[in-house]
Amino acid sequence: MSGEKKFGTSLFGFNKSDVNAYIEKILYEFDHRLKEKDDEISNLKLQIREMKARYESAAQNSEFFAKEKERIASALITAQEKADAIIEEAVRRAEEEKNRLEQALEKEREKIIDIKRDIKTMKEQVADILTRFLGELNETENYITVKEAAYTVEHTLNENQGT
């Protein structure tokens, strides 16, 4: 996973396909790592089962294998502790990743809310500008009509005086 991911932008924020592809990549990597841990746990459990079988065989054979029995018992405990530690670590990492993704999702939701608010403000500003522009156009149209009427009257008077 890379810490520095840049997304392309589109009209209303980040490019959804870039974000979705990145999330799918993270989920794939997380699933892949979780599968690796599951395989490792299975291998450790298999080792534990094999060691248990060896332990039982050693106990049945004689005291000669008493030291071997202690070593295997110790190895079983260590393997179980390792398996437990691996499981705890996988759970902890999964929870951290979940929390990180939830925080990222919340930030994105906040960004969407901010964008919506900005769009609403921009709509209001554009509506105000259009209203003022319409008023100015109406004033200009009235001015032209008045000037046209004055010109027509003046032109008519000039023609009547000239005749």
Written account of the structure:
The chain contains 2 helices and 2 strands. It has helices at 16-61, 66-162, and strands spanning 9-10, 13-14. It has a two-stranded antiparallel sheet with strand order 1-2. Helix 1 (16-61) runs antiparallel to helix 2 (66-162). 1% of the residues are buried.
What is the count of distinct domains? Answer: 1
Number of helices: 2
Q: Approximately how much beta-strand content do the residues carry?
A: under 5%
Strand order of the largest sheet: 1-2
Provide mean pLDDT, rounded: 87
Classify the secondary structure makeup into a structural class: mainly alpha
Tell me the total number of β-strands.
2
Terminal CA distance reads 94 Å
Please give the radius of gyration in angstroms.
40 Å
Order of helices and strands: EEHH
Low-confidence stretches: none
What form results from the Cα inertia axes?
rod-shaped
Helix content: over 70%
Summarize the structure.
The protein has 163 residues and is an all-alpha fold. Helix content is 88%, strand content 2%.
Provide keyphrases for this structure.
163 residues; mainly alpha; two-stranded antiparallel sheet; 2 strands
Give the helices and strands, then pairings.
Layout: E1 9-10, E2 13-14, H1 16-61, H2 66-162
Antiparallel strand pairs: 1-2
